[in-house]
Amino acid sequence: MAEEPRPLDDLDPSLLGPERTAFFLDFDGTLADFNEDPAAVVLPERERRTLSALAKAADGAVAIVSGRAIADIDRMLDPLALPVAGVHGLERRAGNGKVFRAALPEAPLAAARARLQGLARLHPGLLVEEKPGSIALHFRRRPELEPQCLEIARSTVEAHEELQILRGKMVIEFKAGRATKADAVAAFLKEEPFRGRRPFFAGDDSTDEDVFTKMLEWKGISIKVGPGATAAAYRAPGIDAFRGWLAGLARRFNETERSTAARA
Ligand SMILES: [Mg+2]
Predict the structure, then answer these.
(1) Is 26 a catalytic residue?
(2) Per-residue model confidence (pLDDT) at position 257
(3) What is the pTM of this model?
């Protein structure tokens, strides 16, 4: 059984020097608030500034690791463009801009799509989201339909073993590839500008746990945002506490940089 994580206040920020840390951040529930409609989610301006300041201080070693498609993250970060792992590791844009996409079987996704769209037609408020290599069934507007959503997930995977089911907050994903968020972080850590740095990862959902688990092996620093059992070493009580802490860290980096520049 995993130990209860330590409070985020116990994390000594001097362990996170910007020149020796590789920052990985989940997006929804970690940087941006949830919305009934995932397409309507916006990144608050302060968080955009925080990311920009972090990326500057860390020489670009800041990546978003999300269940969303890369194109979706780009749209929300605009005009900021960061390295991104999208669709839980199925696609990835490296620090040098090169994009990697897993080759995926289309037939099982098409079958899942037809079944999910059928369910959504029966139950207005259910939302079927198409992503490269994955289809997400959102039931945030109809939480009482969770049992039906789980049942369709069970029967779909039974018929199509190539599909993997991921459960998140008010969402079930039907994913056509095996890659995970942890695989994406591992790939980033082999490349510039992340290579040789200590990884840092913050996330709020069950799909972030595989990264938290790997962090032990990588001697990284992991933060779970919000309640729930976790393998992370630290916990922020909620998204606002985490965002405030991250903004403070970015401020601290900037001040250090300014005072270093003043001394030079
Ligand atoms: Mg999240």
Answers:
(1) yes
(2) 75
(3) 0.92
